[in-house]
């Protein structure tokens, strides 16, 4: 771009020598031509750096999410390059904004259509707990209908907070056991929501 | 001659006589009350008259006055004359036992959804409306939420987790197998730190920021 | 092929020649939640039925429980792309009810913020029309400049999106020098950006082919449907609340009202572009006028409304009246004079009206928001009759439907 966009009033020179970070190797045993580690570490490493989110943006938090997607806060550098709107192709359901009771069944249906492994992040106060809308028409938190992994508080949360929530999801993804999705506890969790 | 509130009032009383009452001008906006059967006639007159030309329906809403028996529900119309730049408000009152009001949809297409919203919130039945069903709330709702007898926070709702506010045990649905007691009570017992595979134990939730 | 029917089809579906397509409510993120059930004959839309209410948050019921200044946070969430306009519209409604006259400097500062909000709203709408017709670059490019606007909001009120900006009677604090510096930076850089954004779309053959003729509406139908704002102006009617019923000293400013002719998507795009240029013009004039205040007038940032404006903390500790007002305001014990008032401002989408009925208690008896999006979305089925399926999406995004405002 011909014109550099900077909008700090008093800009400091960025220390941009080393602005590409590579993912660290998981712990393991190295040898001549082989590297032994846990399958879950490698799988987790691959998954967490290529999470494809499904932005389920309903209201104001959705606009903050647009700011996160845009070039200033840039979600793409975390691997979330492809924001697909199809649940079949996504790993991470980002629920941003108020979910009304009319919308609840639709949210549940979108969640059901996602393939395992899937994670859910509730962005904003409304998705986490109903927010300021303690009314007859608002679901008081999406964890009434679907299991949630990370909650990001704020109304709306700053883009940095949304990114922080995303990074926490990445931590969860990186350390998830490969057997979790078939385990009894997970099945019990889903059953408690009425999901088989 | 510029159109003034006086002129409008004179023409209205010339046409409808003393059926229109309570002429007031709060904050400069001419307001009056009409009997509920005449709402469409009044609007049609205001629309067609060459001098009055109130051809823009700004707003249509309702107010619930539970303290006036027989006149509990008021439907308020805000009209606007765009060429002469004058606004007008008129109200019709009806009882909550039989809240029938003629629809304005033949005259103003914008009244379609506004009347549906008013029906949704207050239960006013608009006679002749093409599609009078709920618009903003779920279709299965059985009450009209904006009436004064329904307070905002219904104490019997269980979807608000009272346990989080120390007001009772967690409902079974939210019990993910980890924490039994509410936070405000005695110290909750988390599973032992690092118990592998247990939902909610600290194993699943690393506390330090890991390197990417 | 066996003669029994294995699949149970709905009634009348074999005779039906049209396809039912459900568009929504989970669209690709940018629009918000509303649903369209389209009947398609091949690619042509035969009819469209809209369902809204997927984000109904009962603002009007909530407002009956909150004192006036707590309702400002609700108004933020109406048209959340331009929340300062909603805030200031609400404050002006309260000032009308209470009979408060704001000083000129407050009016000019409010105008600066409202026009910035209008620019930010139109930027989202226009860039999203671009995204929906396949051009993602414009969106990414102008989002940078929305960040600049957010930074100005942050300097003034602390928050980026749901600003809760200002108080009844003015602002909570004076604009700092940094705020003015950021404003100057914006005014210096933005015109070039807007010009470049325009050049991406306005004479772009693909964009023109996509949008010209998509979703037209005639001025008579638009007026009958209660259209206001850029959608009405694109249809050809030059009704702008800022010019016709000026509030907050808009009569002191010189600006044009861009008007279209056919009311299709291209006209709406151009009208919003034109309005952004006019908003820039207003901001420049307002900024110059603010600079011209000298002496004591240059520090005024709120009117004298002790019953609704928190006194300064040092006064609370030393003066009796200030202590009493502080207590009454925080506890919500100030009573509103009874009356009913309707005030309208020109929001990003049109005439945003506030109808407030007070019975003399501490909270409104009834508060109704006249939401432009809700009113003009009804016309969607008429606008897309006979159009192609791809036009359905473009028309929806060019109408600038903000779900928060639609459902309230």
What's the layout of helices and strands?
The complex is a heterotrimer of chains A (196), B (212) and C (408).
Chain A: E1 28-31, E2 34-37, H1 39-48, E3 53-57, H2 60-69, E4 92-96, H3 104-113, E5 119-123, H4 125-129, E6 150-152, H5 159-174, H6 184-192
Parallel strand pairs in A: 3-4, 4-5, 5-6
Antiparallel strand pairs in A: 1-2
Helix pairs in contact in A: 1-5, 2-5
Chain B: H1 5-16, E1 21-24, E2 30-34, H2 39-48, E3 56-64, E4 73-81, E5 86-94, E6 100-102, H3 111-122, E7 125-127
Chain C: E1 19-23, E2 35-41, E3 44-51, H1 59-63, H2 72-76, H3 83-98, H4 104-132, H5 136-157, H6 177-201, H7 205-211, H8 219-224, H9 230-235, H10 241-244, H11 265-291, H12 313-318, H13 320-331, E4 339-346, E5 351-358, E6 366-370, H14 372-376, H15 380-383, H16 389-398, H17 403-407
Antiparallel strand pairs in C: 1-2, 2-3, 4-5, 5-6
Characterization of this structure:
The complex is a heterotrimer of chains A (196), B (212) and C (408). By secondary structure, chain A is an alpha/beta fold. In chain A, 31% of the residues lie in helices and 13% in strands. Chain A has helices at 39-48, 60-69, 104-113, 125-129, 159-174, 184-192; strands at 28-31, 34-37, 53-57, 92-96, 119-123, 150-152. Chain A starts with 27 loop residues before the first strand and ends with a helix. Chain B is of the alpha/beta class and 212 residues long. Chain B folds into 2 domains: 5-127, NADH:ubiquinone oxidoreductase Nqo5 subunit (Beta Polymerase, domain 2), CATH 3.30.460.80; 151-185, no CATH class. Chain B is 16% helix and 20% strand. In chain B, the strands form 2 sheets. A 5-stranded mixed sheet of chain B has the order 1-2-5-4-3. Chain B has a two-stranded parallel ribbon with strand order 6-7. The termini of chain C are far apart. With 408 residues, chain C is mainly α. The chains are: A alpha/beta (196), B alpha/beta (212), C mainly alpha (408). Chains A and C meet through strand 3 and helix 2 of A and helix 2, helix 5, helix 6 and helix 17 of C.
């Amino acid at each position: 771009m011909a014109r550099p966009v900077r909008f700090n009033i008093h800009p400091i020179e960025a220390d941009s020598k080393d602005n590409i970070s590579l993912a660290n190797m998981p712990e393991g045993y190295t040898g001549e031509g082989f590297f032994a580690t846990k399958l879950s570490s490698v799988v987790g490493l691959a998954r967490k750096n290529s999470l494809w989110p499904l932005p389920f943006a309903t209201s104001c938090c959705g606009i903050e999410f647009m700011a996160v997607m845009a070039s200033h806060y840039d979600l793409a550098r975390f691997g979330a390059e492809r924001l697909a709107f199809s649940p079949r192709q996504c790993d991470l359901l980002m629920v941003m904004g108020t979910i009304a009771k009319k919308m609840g069944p639709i949210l549940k249906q979108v969640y059901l259509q996602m393939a395992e492994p899937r994670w859910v992040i509730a962005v904003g106060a409304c998705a986490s707990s109903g927010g300021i809308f303690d009314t007859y028409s608002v679901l008081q938190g999406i964890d009434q209908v679907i299991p949630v992994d990370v909650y990001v508080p704020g109304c709306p949360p700053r883009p940095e907070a949304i990114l922080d929530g995303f990074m926490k999801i990445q931590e969860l993804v990186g350390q998830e056991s490969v057997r979790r999705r078939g385990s009894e506890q997970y099945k019990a969790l889903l059953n408690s929501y009425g999901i088989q | 001659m510029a159109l003034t509130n006086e002129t409008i009032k004179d023409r209205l009383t010339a046409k409808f006589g003393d059926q229109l009452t309570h002429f007031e001008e709060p904050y400069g906006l001419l307001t009056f009350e009409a009997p509920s059967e005449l709402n469409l006639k009044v609007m049609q007159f205001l629309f067609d008259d060459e001098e009055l030309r109130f051809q823009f329906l700004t707003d249509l809403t309702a107010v619930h006055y539970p303290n006036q028996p027989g006149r509990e529900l008021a439907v308020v119309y805000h009209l606007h004359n765009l060429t002469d730049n004058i606004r007008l408000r008129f109200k019709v009152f009806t009882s909550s036992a039989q809240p029938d009001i003629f629809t304005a949809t033949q005259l103003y297409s914008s009244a379609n959804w506004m009347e549906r919203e008013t029906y949704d919130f207050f239960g006013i039945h608009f006679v002749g409306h093409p599609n009078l069903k709920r618009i903003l709330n779920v279709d299965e709702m059985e009450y009209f939420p904006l009436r004064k007898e329904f307070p905002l926070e219904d104490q019997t709702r269980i979807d608000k987790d009272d346990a989080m506010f120390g007001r009772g045990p967690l409902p079974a649905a939210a019990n993910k197998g980890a924490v039994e007691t509410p936070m405000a009570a005695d110290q909750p017992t988390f599973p032992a730190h690092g118990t592998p595979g247990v939902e909610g134990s600290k194993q699943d939730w690393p506390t330090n920021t890991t390197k990417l | 092929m066996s003669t029994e029917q294995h699949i149970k089809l709905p009634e009348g579906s074999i005779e039906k020649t049209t396809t039912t397509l459900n568009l929504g409510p989970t669209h690709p993120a940018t629009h918000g939640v509303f649903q369209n059930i389209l009947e398609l004959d091949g690619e042509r839309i035969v009819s469209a039925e809209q369902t809204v209410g997927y984000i109904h948050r009962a603002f009007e019921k909530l407002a009956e429980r909150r004192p006036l200044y707590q309702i400002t946070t609700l108004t933020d969430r109406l048209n959340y792309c331009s929340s300062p306009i909603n805030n200031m519209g609400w404050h002006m409604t309260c000032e009308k009810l209470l009979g408060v006259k704001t000083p000129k400097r407050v009016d000019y500062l409010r105008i600066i913020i409202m026009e910035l909000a209008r620019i930010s709203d139109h930027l989202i709408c226009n860039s999203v029309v671009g995204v929906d017709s396949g051009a993602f670059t414009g969106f990414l490019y102008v989002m940078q400049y929305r960040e600049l606007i957010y930074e100005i909001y942050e300097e003034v009120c602390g928050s980026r999106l749901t600003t809760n900006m200002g108080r009844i009677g003015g602002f909570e604090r004076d604009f700092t020098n940094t705020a003015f510096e950021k404003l100057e930076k914006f005014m210096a850089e933005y015109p070039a950006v807007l010009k470049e954004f325009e050049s991406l779309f306005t004479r772009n053959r693909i964009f023109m082919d996509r949008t010209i003729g998509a979703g037209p509406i005639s001025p008579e139908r638009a007026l009958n449907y209660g259209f206001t704002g850029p959608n009405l102006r694109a249809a050809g009617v030059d009704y702008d609340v800022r010019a016709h019923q000026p509030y907050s000293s808009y009569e002191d400013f010189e600006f044009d009202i861009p008007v279209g002719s056919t009311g299709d998507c291209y006209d709406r795009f151009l009208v919003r572009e034109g309005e952004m240029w006019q908003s820039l013009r207003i901001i420049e004039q307002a900024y110059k006028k603010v600079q011209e205040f000298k002496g004591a007038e240059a520090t005024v940032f709120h009117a004298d409304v002790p019953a609704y404006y928190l006194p300064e903390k040092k006064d609370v500790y030393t003066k009796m009246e200030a202590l009493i007002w502080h207590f009454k305001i925080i506890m919500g014990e100030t009573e509103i004079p009874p009356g009913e008032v309707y005030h309208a401002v020109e929001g990003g989408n049109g005439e945003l009206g506030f109808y407030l009925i007070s019975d003399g208690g501490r909270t409104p008896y009834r508060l109704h928001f006249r939401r432009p999006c809700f009113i003009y979305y009804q016309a969607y089925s008429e606008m897309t009759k006979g159009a192609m399926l791809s036009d359905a999406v473009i028309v929806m995004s060019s109408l600038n439907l903000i779900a928060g405002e639609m459902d309230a």
